[in-house]
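Let us practice reading a record.
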Amino acid sequence: GRLELTMLLRNGEQLLLTVVLPVGLLLVLTLTDVIDIGGGTRTERLDVVVPSMVALAILSTSFTALAIQTGFERRYGVLRRVGTTPLSRSDVLGGKAVAVLVVEVAQILLLGAIGGALGWRPEAVGLLLLIGTVVNNGIVMLAHVNHYRNEGLTRYDAMLRGCRERLRPIM
């Protein structure tokens, strides 16, 4: 996980998409009237912009970790070298998942702190619902993957199938 996180943070393109763009858009859309987002006051704008930038940050990190980082790894022969180590596919995927999760938690904290400094005050009920949904989805996803493992699928195939089927209802 730590190696994947280090590799994720070393690429300038990924830092641009994971930190600079969401923070920049948060500041621009909150402090200016460049785009009409329906809120007249700063508080109303923050109620729309902060959650939107958190969603943008999470999606951009997930996609860049899979697309850009895997492209770099393939170009520089990292994937070929990883194939010669005792790591299994699930270990490599698990490391990537942990790295993405750490970056996403940091993004949420950073964007929430900037939003809080600008005056954003999220509703506690909404945060509790969000946390409950994420935890519940994680539990259901693991149960779904274990179901496919019990049916005889390999760990890799069970993870792919279970996660693909559980992602759709959440999105």
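A brief commentary: The CA atoms of residues 111 and 117 lie 10 Å apart.
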